[in-house]
Specification:
Elements lengths: L4 H8 L3 H9 L18 H16 L3 H7 L7 H31 L10 H7 L3 H10 L5 H13 L4 H7 L7 H21 L14 H15 L2 H15 L2
Helix pairs in contact: 5-6, 6-8, 7-11, 10-12
Organism: Pseudonocardia xinjiangensis
Pfam family, one: MerR_1
InterPro entries: DNA-bd_dom_put_sf, MerR-type_HTH_dom, MerR_fam
Length: 241
């Protein structure tokens, strides 16, 4: 019994391309050729191809299959390792589905981590604010991330939020000062209701100083000069009794 490459592929339920690739990587030996130059495959080739296809369907990579050789009794260690990989993949996919459900339910930004995204969805953050949150979640400790998420969930929007977001870079001094003064009560209320946000981030992986430096650098890049000036003015007003 001899088959052509196409016939072999059809019998195994795979493609010509797959058979040729298995030849290229050394998983299937090249068969003898007929007098007309066409390859002729036998039962041993079909058996080998079916075994390769089965292992690929189970999740083994071609390099893992190559390492197994022609042994019909595949090492239990390799099977256990594959099972562990598949279990981890299933867990990751289940976690991703849960996170996608939260994102869809809360209309949350998909780029934010799961402990922040639901809260951020209701907060209607500007692009700059969302970028800042994304950066800060990478450097803050877990308690500060939780406190920030709680703040986003519970703090009501303030009329000055939109004004700050749309403040042009060339806003004059009077406009900046007026906005800072009107923002002050809202900022004071946030600080009073969420004192954990103001405490040093002692759990930050790289320390509280790194958190502060990262925040300053991010804000410098994300907000325009007028917005940064308003933030500085609010800070000065907060220090006044």
């Amino acid at each position: 019994m001899a088959w052509s490459t196409r016939e072999l592929a059809e019998l195994a339920g795979t493609s010509l391309r797959a058979v040729r690739h298995y030849h290229e990587v050394g998983l299937i030996p090249e068969p003898e050729r007929r007098s007309n130059g066409y390859k002729q495959y036998g039962v041993s080739h079909l058996v080998r191809l079916l075994r390769i296809k089965r292992l690929v369907d189970l999740g083994f990579s071609l390099s893992q299959i190559a390492a197994m050789g022609d042994d019909d009794h595949h090492p239990a260690e390799a099977l256990r390792a594959l099972d562990a990989e598949l279990a981890a993949t299933v867990e990751r996919l289940q976690r991703a589905r849960v996170e996608l459900g939260l994102i869809l339910r809360h209309h949350a930004p998909a780029d934010l981590p799961p402990d922040i995204a639901p809260a951020a969805g209701g907060a209607r953050l500007s692009e700059a604010d969302r970028s800042l949150v994304l950066v800060m979640t990478r450097v803050m400790g877990p308690k500060h991330v939780g406190a920030y998420a709680e703040m986003l969930r519970t703090v009501a929007a303030d009329p000055t939020d939109g004004e700050f977001d749309s403040l042009p870079a060339d806003a004059d001094d009077e406009v900046r000062q007026d906005l800072a003064e009107r923002m002050l009560p809202h900022i004071r209320r946030i600080r009073a209701e969420h004192p954990d946000l103001m405490a040093p981030d002692t759990e930050a992986p790289r320390g509280a100083r790194f958190v502060a430096e990262t925040a300053a650098a991010a804000m410098q890049e994300l907000y325009n000069p007028a917005q940064l000036d308003v933030i500085r003015r609010v800070g000065a007003l907060l220090k006044d009794p």
